[in-house]
Fold:
Amino acid sequence: MTTKFTRRQFIELSSKMTVLMGLSTNAIPDIAQALENLATGRVKVLWLQAQSCSGCSISLLDSEHPNPAELLTQYMSLLFHHTISAASGDRCMDIVEKTSKAGGHILVVEGSIPAGMPEACMMGHKPMTELVSEAAKTASHVIAIGTCAAFGGIPGAEGNPTGAISVATFLKQQKISTTVINIPGCPTHPDWFVGSLTYLAKYGLPPLDKHSRPLMFFKRTIHENCPRFYDYERENFAKSFSEEGCLFKIGCLGVITYADCTIRDRNGGTNNCIKAGAPCVGCSSEIFALKKSFLFYRKNESKYLGE
Ligand code: SF4
Ligand code: SF4
Structure:
């Protein structure tokens, strides 16, 4: 998907991208170059979807800088995407197989991998396990987008019948050594994906934390940047969602969750969970929804919080 664009458009967009990635303004020409490489097909992107709800794709369509139409039609050489590609049937299988064979692409995987039941997720006549393996082997990098792909997420919850696991765990089992970048979130934030992809296109692998998440977005906890942090310090705790005060006692997991939601906001900078009065449920965390004991699944929360 490539089209016309002007240098001026690139520079304008690059300035916005540079800010969202937290880079210095000196990086603007580099970011412009990266976007150009993505748009002109010098960096090819193949997107495969395994066990997921498509939420991360929908979230990407909420992207502001660039907006969805720009992103998909002008700034990314997206060879195939389950939800938005016009191709279907043999044509799309052909694109995926040819891309895997040629190699050198960036593989984006949305959703967890049904390692214990490959037939649970098929595309054409092939299980997704096979398609992901083939595409990952020859890719320059793999981006696991969303918590399902990054850590297993809801499909990977304890007792799941498909043996769902993260992309990195699956590739390790298959002895495929392509580097995986985890961009969690349920759903992910479009800036996290667009910023990481652009960085990758220009500079290569961004600095990552121990869970392979880009540090530019996942360096600090929700708690550290929370607008209610001073309430926490003063032990001013809310007892219900509508109350002011820190949400810790009604289940907020901001203390253990690394992401920059409270300073980035969602839906074009409109709001975030905590600003809206909802505790952080830890959707970007590496433990999100995996165990039955995870806070997210519990009822009568006050019972667990000693109230
Ligand atoms: S609302 Fe959550 S993230 Fe904010 S200060 Fe309280 S515990 Fe920390
Ligand atoms: S604040 Fe927490 S639950 Fe909300 S989007 Fe961010 S990481 Fe997920």
